[in-house]
Amino acid sequence: MKEKMMGQGAGRLGFCRKAALAPMVRVGTLPMRLLALEYGADIVYCEELIDIRMAQCRRVVNEVLETVDFVAPDERVMFRTCLREKDHVVFQMGTADPQRALTVAQLVENDVAAIDVNMGCPKEYSTKGGMGAALLSDPDKIEAILSTLVKGVSKPVTCKIRILPSLEDTVSLAKRIEKTGVAAIAVHGRTKEERPQHPVHCDVIKAVAQAVSVPVIANGGSLDLVKSHGDIQVFREAAGASSVMLARAAMWNPSVFRCQGLLSLESVMEAYIRYAVRYENHASNTKYCLCQMLRDRVESPLGKQLHAAQTSAEICEVFGLQEFYSEHRARLLARQDSLHTGGQRPDRPVMEGDVTTMSVRFHRREYPPQITPKMHLLEWSRREKLEQPAYETVQRPLDRGFQSTVTVAEKKYRSTLWEKSKKFAEQAAAVVCLRSLGVSEGRVADPEAELVSKRKREERRADQSEEEKEGPHGPPNASDSTSRKRHQSKPQEEVKG
Ligand SMILES: Cc1cc2nc3c(=O)[nH]c(=O)nc-3n(C[C@H](O)[C@H](O)[C@H](O)COP(=O)(O)O)c2cc1C
């Protein structure tokens, strides 16, 4: 088979003899893409992202994770990418609007290797907006979208189609697409009415590949044809295509891209979790992908344990990766610290608007058992006949870190460092307040600490009964008012810290 030229506008990314991770909603997030690359995939598609949502995103360089994040107004990270995949990742979007498609493509183009338009999704949520497979019956729209993208971005533009009921129509659509200047066409060898368990029509993909001169990427062979790396070549030849794109085979076991052969699912899952933790993937997404890998073993004891896990820490525990998780969190916090302190003395107060800030972190081991900065601040406020300190905590979705602001005598104090829990964030805010006021915070090395601890031990019983009266939810003004989650804390001390 002759090797095909890449269409006009092709950049560094080529589409000849390549094995690609197919776009998959929920599955194709950063950890899966990095794992597929590690195992030998040449190209990795992200999950389909809808243009309307993406157009509202802002680009954020996440220095802590060393990623580039595209963050929605509600602070959700819609697309996270990193340098490792920059020359391999294809950004797939769902669109029915040339101008909006261009806006999104221009937003991401410097961080990705190519832009793809999904023209194959048969799901109603996609087709009812004129996106996905709905485009297949609107070739003028296809042409408008692809031509606009090819002209408007510097990276290769591709599209992913399904076959049409007639071979002639499929071939003529592919020829029309080719004229727009796309760098490759991915062809899923099923019609939009056919289900994933129907056999893939390699003959139709082959006819398309013979009719156009841009590379064709064959897709749809996971169930019947591709079980391991060697089958990729078999599928490519059967479809007469330049490259192959795998969805389910890669979702079930991404080591299908490994030329040395498949790895055990256990080791693949562990490797996946390491990427998921490293890049702060949302636990529910991590869990979803792991469950897809387990397939019919989802009811096994491991599957049940996984099902019960709610957080990344708990997922790690199921797989015996607690130590890895703790080390990761420690590294993350240390990196946050070094980025935020920026070489400044950490205990120098800096005003940020009306808030006094310092770069301090709460280290539990620096305080005597059961005695915390919050207790010291509460005690001091009572002595000064002030209202009890009020804490307001926010959580940022970027890395799910917590930051708390404490108000004392109508002045606000907070640490610039984000903590791993709400409790620690409140303690850090209390430390900032105490240090700014020059009041002892009760560290072990602090001579005043012993006195306060003694008095606290005597008072704790009284405090606890007061707390019981107040009820478990604190004051009634806790609210969810902004895009960040807000946690209004009761002023009463939490003993654990
Ligand atoms: C979980 C899942 C999610 C998918 N999401 C997308 C998507 O976001 N965009 C897309 O073009 N196709 C999507 N597909 C379709 C696949 O990319 C692919 O076309 C199809 O599964 C056939 O390939 P296979 O036989 O290798 O699985 C998805 C498939 C699966 C299984």
From TrEMBL:
Residues 443-497 are annotated as: Disordered. CDD domains: DSRM_DUS2L, DUS_like_FMN. Residues 372-439 form the DRBM domain. Signal peptide: none annotated. The keyword tRNA processing applies. SUPFAM superfamilies: dsRNA-binding domain-like, FMN-linked oxidoreductases. GO terms for molecular function: flavin adenine dinucleotide binding; tRNA binding; tRNA dihydrouridine synthase activity. InterPro entries: Aldolase_TIM, dsRBD_dom, DUS-like_FMN-bd, DUS2_DSRM, tRNA-DUS-like, tRNA_hU_synthase_CS. The lineage of its organism: Eukaryota, Metazoa, Chordata, Craniata, Vertebrata. This is DRBM domain-containing protein. Keywords: Flavoprotein, FMN, Oxidoreductase, RNA-binding, tRNA processing. The keyword Transmembrane does not apply. It comes from the Eukaryota. Its cofactor is FMN. GO terms for cellular component: cytoplasm. SMART domains: DSRM. PROSITE patterns: DS_RBD, UPF0034.
